[in-house]
Design goal:
β3 and β4 form a beta hairpin. 4% of the residues lie in helices and 40% in strands. The protein has a domain of 75 residues. The protein is built from one helix and eight strands, in the order βαβββββββ. The N terminus is likely disordered. The longest helix is centred in the first third of the chain and has 5 residues. The chain is mainly beta. The two termini are 22 Å apart. Strands 1, 2, 3, 4, 5 and 6 form a six-stranded antiparallel sheet that branches. Strands 7-8 form a two-stranded antiparallel sheet. The chain is extended.
Length: 116
């Protein structure tokens, strides 16, 4: 599966109650899943800080929240004119794409798109 990951700026914990569920697209050749992860930091045995992505039970201001939109064409034919619609909750602000990843295309009306 290909993934697009986005890291948001600090946010409040209340948004998780409305957005933590994983969403799936309707049946068909395009399979889409959406998930929310947070960075968890812990001490590694060698004394360095280890960063892992975990499903959040709670998010506090300053946490890095990662939204992953994964997709797969399970059909035999290429798909054309595919639009993935995964709006961020109102309490989230987009910061940047991961290094080396292209900026996502976005729309405010669902009709006109441009690079973020």
């Amino acid at each position: 599966m290909r993934s697009i990951a986005m890291i948001s700026r600090p946010m409040i914990a209340a948004i998780l109650a409305s957005t933590a569920a994983v969403a799936s697209a309707a049946a068909g050749p395009l399979q889409v899943t959406s998930s929310i992860m947070v960075e968890a930091r812990s001490a590694a045995p060698d004394g360095t800080t280890r960063v892992t992505l975990v499903k959040p039970s709670r998010v506090t201001p300053g946490d890095k929240v990662i939204f992953v939109l994964a997709y797969r064409n399970s059909g035999a034919q290429p798909l054309a004119n595919v639009v993935l619609d995964n709006p961020l909750p109102r309490q989230i602000a987009y910061r940047s794409a991961n290094p080396g990843s292209p900026a996502p295309d976005v729309s405010v009306d669902g009709k006109t798109y441009g690079s973020l």
